[in-house]
Amino acid sequence: MDRSYLTMLRHIPVPQEDVDFFSSFPFVSPYLSKKSRYQPVPFLTRHKITPNDTSDLFFSKTINSHDTIPRMLALMRKEDLQHPTPQTTTSVDTPAQGPQDPYFVVFAQLESGVNGYRDTLHGGVLASLFDEALGLCVEGCRETGSPGKSWLLTASLEVNYRSAVTTPCIVLIKTWLERTEGRKWFLKAQLLDQDNSVKAEARTLYISSRNHASL
């Protein structure tokens, strides 16, 4: 069975109740309209691919409850999901990616079970949200832009906390690939509230394994 990332995104169903829930929020609806260039995809680490798989339990179990993060909805650009155009070099062309046109976006419902300070999202959970969303983003970029069997490993993650995230709330995480330099993949992300105010920013560096990669 083909277990490629894009194949799983195309074939694992997205819960309709999650789509219906998030579509009721005005700042979400543009991403779900018929004219949107984005398509809902599974947030893969919330799904158990095999029953005995013990990976990703933090997202699939620990913070997947009614009082933590009961719902998450990921979306990817339709052209990248449906008609990827692989490149033959290790330099990935990334036109039009940025905060106004992110590659991969995530909406999350945050409840009081992820608080640190009173009615405030725990900073470590916020960093974990960035880490997970960026990881899914870079894997999609790798398959559409530079396919192969190399692994992408997190080398660094820097989070800039601009203001507190008050819970309960709905947040938007935008992620995009900034550039590549040989085996180095540089990505950025923003977390916004329902008023489109940027609450936190992140940048990360992934290193491609040497297999099927050039220095």
Automatic annotation (TrEMBL):
What Gene3D superfamilies does the annotation carry?
Answer: Hotdog Thioesterase (3.10.129.10)
What CDD domains does the annotation carry?
PaaI_thioesterase (cd03443)
- Which InterPro entries does the protein's record reference? HotDog_dom_sf, PTE-AB_protein, Thioestr_dom
Instruction: Tell me which domain of life the UniProt entry assigns to the organism this sequence originates from.
Output: Eukaryota
Q: Where is the Thioesterase domain?
A: 120-198
State what protein this is by name: Thioesterase domain-containing protein
Question: What is the originating organism of this protein?
Answer: Exophiala spinifera
